[in-house]
Design brief:
Layout (H helix, E strand, L loop, with lengths): L1 E6 L17 E6 L5 E5 L1 H4 L5 H11 L2 E6 L4 H9 L3 E4 L5 H9 L21
Parallel strand pairs: 1-4, 4-5
Antiparallel strand pairs: 1-2, 2-3
Helix pairs in contact: 2-3
Length: 124
Amino acid sequence: MKLAISLTGTEPDAAVDPHFGRARCFRIVDTETGERSLWDNAAAAEAAHGAGTRTAQALAGLGVRAVLTGHVGPKAWSVLEAAGIRVYQAGAGGQEEVIRSFLGGRLQPLGGGGGGAGSGIHGA
């Protein structure tokens, strides 16, 4: 499965970015092969409108099945949900820690029960 982690920058030790659509880049990890790549999200992140939607569509096109991030706006959430992409609360910390937490089943999925308060879905 491919997963994507929202990051604040391109450095190997970049922190998780809590803002999905405005994240500078995403670490793409294939959990089956171990392959890792960095996907630049600058075009969407710098857009005046629709950053989250553009980001969600691009990640779906890359074959991502799970996103590890902080908050996802409602429009981006709709795109992710339609594409069958699950969203998990990444919390603060480094990307390697977040990847280990995901693989260990310690991250909480967001949006259960239709979203709303406490779901991690926030307008932006």
